[in-house]
Design brief:
The complex is a heterodimer. Chain A is mainly α. Chain A has eleven helices and two strands; from the N terminus they run ααααββααααααα. In chain A, strand 1 and strand 2 form a beta hairpin. In chain B, the strands form two sheets. A seven-stranded mixed sheet of chain B has the order 7-6-8-9-10-11-12, sandwiched between helices. A five-stranded parallel sheet of chain B has the order 2-1-3-4-5, with helices on both faces. In chain B, strand 11 and strand 12 form a beta hairpin.
Chain lengths: 290, 425
């Protein structure tokens, strides 16, 4: 039972990371009905910059955090301008390819300038395990889950309870109509992509101590994307639950079945969900009023 | 960064091929046109038996002997190929500065195989057929080396490997191939012996990479534990390349209650595994396989890496506190990097590259005036307790039917400064 409980605890932490990364996809989708496949690479760039700033310039954690979030927000806006706005009337596949291309460029740029320099990123809070009734939890895990919760609630409030959120939803509903009623659709779009970039940077710094800072660390975004789709791509809470469920399922399958089957099970579940509940396990079917 | 550094040597490779072209041009002049027959004269009846590709380099003094190499010089695995190439180049330049071998100057031709077996095969072909090299040095990572092996064996060109530790390098045995450091089975044995003998572990567990390298090590350790120590792994968990979360595997291992955990992984993965193990409260001695002891490991592991022990195949570490290495660093700087060494250098592949050079050099020296591929192969086969690289590598001994130069290993341990140091249990 301890083993099961420990598996769930670690699965939830892993899932919180997926959720955090997945949110970056979701808010862009909610506002612009687009997918940003450079998201994982923005996350990676954030972690690489964070590592550089702390080790080479000797900055402490919080200034680093602020700096990284600003830089990745700017990258998010840049990706929007180059990868989305320049081809806005093109088919979705074109935008996806354009953003993926930008991501590949970022990855190569990091690899060329930093080489395969891999490093561990010292965490801001301790990673020494604390035993609670036979289950081990690290303060870092708790912080990650807490930050995830705060961001989810904050973003949900932003979308549902603020004028800006209203503008975002309006843009997603009908860009031209939103422009007609005086919403600066371009500004709202840039702002959302910037916000998503900032989220990627924050996530990059948070998960860096769990893994390694490498040019390839952006791959986590692929799994996070699956988690968000699983939960429901058009809803912030649903996508977050999807990420958490995915983390728990992955860990438990690895624990009780085999890690070799982990991806098989995850993608089988994904396909089943797409068949029977295209709007996600917890998402509501999108209703388009015409 | 590897890419940037890679571009410089590429340019050098280019210029050295220009030199080769110039040499070819002079070789076409009547004075040198006798080389194919003249060179076999010294070797009497021995050489004609070998294939046309065997280009004996004897003949007139001053003729340049070409050594060929293929290895990843760009991309993620350039970290193996570039230092090996530089180590060899340092040795070549040093030999040339001291008047060459028996009056022959040496030249190194290095091709980038990008860690791609097909590229490795075509590079080996090009070295043999086009460049007509006297010997091939180092070779690439195991996949590429094994792929190129048949081509080299067929051409009967001496091949002193310096990167691959693969168990199948001599399956089937090739009389033209030599290895200069302990292979992966010897490394796995050393790991198992440390766990069973020094740690007195009764319940060893292992987490290993599901690729060829990981499975090879796991099989070898399983056999060693069973045959030598009558032990079995209480838990054996695989992971896939690219995995970043090892929680499931580590929890399963923890629930099996082991008293030692072998991490048979590449250094970066091992660093994450060690950290996650500590975070799950898995507090048993952690031992690394042959892929772990690189400077990358302590960087990837952070504090959690303290006290990590791993198997090591050299008598020294690649740092200047060892006189032989200090000496090498001076030469590397003098011949290859006059404006300063790149970060992370020298690495262990600097040492293997340089050591491989000294091995073929010793055999060529002993062959004397009768310098043919056949005579050098004979000299290699009778090399006994030769210490390569002035003591940077363990002594090697080859016989006509055993080309594994040594199975000697030692251990290294991560110290409080988060660096590997030599360690005697």
């Amino acid at each position: 039972m301890d083993l099961f409980a420990q598996g769930v605890v670690n699965g939830v932490t892993l899932g919180a990371v997926y959720a955090l990364v997945g949110l970056g996809f979701v808010i862009i989708y909610k506002t612009t009905r687009m997918l940003n496949f450079a998201h994982g690479q923005i996350l990676m760039v954030g972690a690489v910059i964070g590592l550089f700033v702390t080790t080479t310039w000797g900055w402490s954690y919080w200034p680093t955090f602020g700096f990284v979030v600003l830089v990745t927000a700017a990258i998010g806006v840049a990706v929007e301008k180059i990868g989305y706005r320049a081809v806005v009337d093109a088919p979705v596949a074109t935008v996806i390819l354009a953003t993926a291309a930008l991501g590949t460029i970022m990855q190569s740029a990091v690899r060329i300038t930093q080489g395969q320099q891999l490093s561990y990123f010292p965490p801001v809070v301790s990673t020494a395990p604390i035993g609670i009734g036979g289950i081990f939890v690290t303060p870092l895990q708790m912080v990650i889950v807490a930050i995830c919760l705060v961001l989810v609630i904050g973003l949900w409030l932003l979308f549902q309870r603020t004028r800006l959120g209203l503008a975002m939803r309006a843009v997603s509903e009908n860009r031209d109509a939103a422009a007609l009623v005086g919403i600066n659709a371009g500004f709202v779009s840039s702002l959302t992509w910037g916000l998503s970039g900032a989220l990627a940077g924050a996530a990059g710094l948070l998960i860096a101590p769990l893994v390694l800072v490498t040019p390839d660390m952006g791959v986590i975004a692929n799994t996070a994307f699956v988690g968000a789709v699983l939960g429901g791509f058009s809803s912030i809470p649903a996508s977050v639950i999807g990420g958490v469920v995915l983390g728990v399922v992955e860990t438990l399958v690895g624990l009780y079945l085999s890690t070799a089957y982990r991806d098989v099970v995850v993608f089988a579940i994904l396909i089943a969900v797409l068949w029977f509940r295209p709007s996600g396990l917890f998402g509501r079917a999108a209703v388009r009023r015409v | 960064m590897d890419h940037l550094q890679g571009s410089r040597p590429l340019r050098r490779k280019f210029s050295s091929s220009l030199v080769a072209l110039a040499l070819l041009a002079t070789a076409c002049s009547p004075a040198a046109s006798t080389s194919p027959s003249a060179t076999t004269a010294g070797g009497s009846g021995a050489s004609p038996a070998s294939s046309p590709a065997s280009s004996p380099a004897g003949g007139g003094t001053g003729e340049v002997i070409k050594l060929g190499m293929f290895a990843p010089l760009t991309g993620p695995l350039a970290a193996t190929g570039v230092p090996a190439r530089d180590g060899l180049q340092t040795w070549v330049d040093e030999v040339n500065a001291n008047g060459g071998i028996n009056g022959h100057q040496l030249e190194l031709i290095a091709y980038d195989d990008q860690n791609n077996p097909q590229q490795a095969v075509s590079a080996a072909r090009r070295l043999i057929e086009q460049d007509k090299v006297f010997a091939i040095m180092c070779g690439s990572n195991s996949g590429s080396t094994l792929a190129a092996l048949p081509v080299i064996t067929q051409a009967k060109v001496p091949f002193v490997t310096c990167i691959s530790a693969h168990r199948d390098l001599f399956k089937p045995f090739s009389p033209y191939v030599y290895r200069m450091y302990a292979n992966e089975v010897a490394q796995a044995n050393a790991d198992s012996d440390y766990v069973a003998d020094s740690l007195k572990a009764k319940r060893p567990a292992i987490i290993y990479n599901s690729n060829d390298f990981g499975v090879g090590g796991f099989d070898a350790m399983t056999a060693r534990f069973k045959d030598q120590w009558n032990l079995e792994f209480v838990a054996a968990e695989k992971y896939n390349v690219g995995d970043q979360d090892f929680t499931s595997q580590l929890l399963k291992i923890k629930s099996a209650n082991p008293d030692a955990l072998i991490v048979h992984a590449f250094a970066a993965d091992a660093g994450i595994i060690v950290r996650q193990a500590k975070q799950l409260g898995l507090n048993v001695p952690l031992i690394g396989g042959g892929g772990t002891p690189t400077p990358l490991f302590p960087k990837a592991a952070g504090d959690a890496g303290d006290g990590f022990v791993a198997v090591w195949v050299f008598p020294v570490l690649p740092d200047a506190s060892f006189p032989a290495v200090k000496d090498y660093i001076g030469k590397l700087q003098q011949y290859v990097y006059p404006s300063g060494l790149p970060t992370g250098r020298p690495s262990l592949y600097d040492m293997t590259g340089y050591c491989a050079g000294t091995i073929i050099g010793e055999a060529m020296q002993k062959a004397g005036a009768d310098l043919t591929q056949t005579s050098v192969l004979q000299q290699l086969d009778s090399l006994k307790d030769f210490t390569p690289g002035n003591g940077m590598c363990y002594p090697v001994t080859f016989t006509p039917d055993n080309h594994e130069g040594t199975d000697q290993t030692t251990l290294v341990k991560v110290n409080a400064n988060q660096q590997f140091e030599l360690f005697q249990p």
